[in-house]
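Lab channel / #folding
Pinned by the channel admin:
"Please post every new chain as: sequence first, then the structure tokens as a reply. Keep commentary short and put observations after the output so the thread stays searchable."

First post following the new format, from NK:
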Amino acid sequence: MSTSLQSTSPSGAIRRLWPVESEELSDADIVASLRSDGPVLRVNFVSSVDGAVTHDGRSGGLSDDADKRHFELLRRVCDVVLVGAGTVRDEGYGAMRVSVESARWRVANGLPEHPVFAIVTGSLNLDPGSDIFTKAPVRPIVFTTSRGAVRAAEFEASADVVVAGSELVHGPAIVSALRERGLGNILCEGGPHLFGSLLADAAVDELFLTVSPTLEAGGAARITAGVLPASVRLTLASVLSSGSTLLLRYRLP
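Reply from TO:
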């Protein structure tokens, strides 16, 4: 590794370590690497070195400036942000909006100003009067089950409710419904149960994992939950760094 790559990085600065070393990357550099010519389902997580997915109950507690920057750039290029309802509540999500810079880039590149927000909830235990819906710049989509759909009428004014399973919400049904709407670039931001379900259905194309240089111990969850039919072998695509934080990109079979 070169001496320049070992020096202390400014807050939020990101460099590439592998497969080709680089000096500091601009937003344009990173966005160019994230653009996709076809449909893709990406999952984005942050984790401690010992595998904890939260600090004090929230993934945001593990995030630093570089992770937040990369998080925003992943949103910049996507069509839809997909999140489980538990994560929406735990992380305090509001209406889905990207930064001013991201909105300008999206419009200049033929995308709507903001991505669609898609929420997964088996029970439809959400408040249709929350800011997530009432302040949304784009009408959200809520994926639920047949049992959750009994509350669908409450959301007529605020969201599209899509039934994607009887007892459980099925990943392939979510992906199919989104792509039928022209939303091919899907960014899933968790949580672990949704990621585990998508993995079990072999629906994930890429995993972006920020490794925070901390040890958390305790009983924090991992980035996946549930049962997989078999281990999933990942292929490392790139390694970025910001100080002691690593931003890993994996491809799935």
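NK: The longest strand covers residues 40-48.
TO: also worth noting, The beta strands are 15-18, 40-48, 80-84, 116-120, 141-144, 160-163, 185-188, 206-212, 235-242, 245-251.
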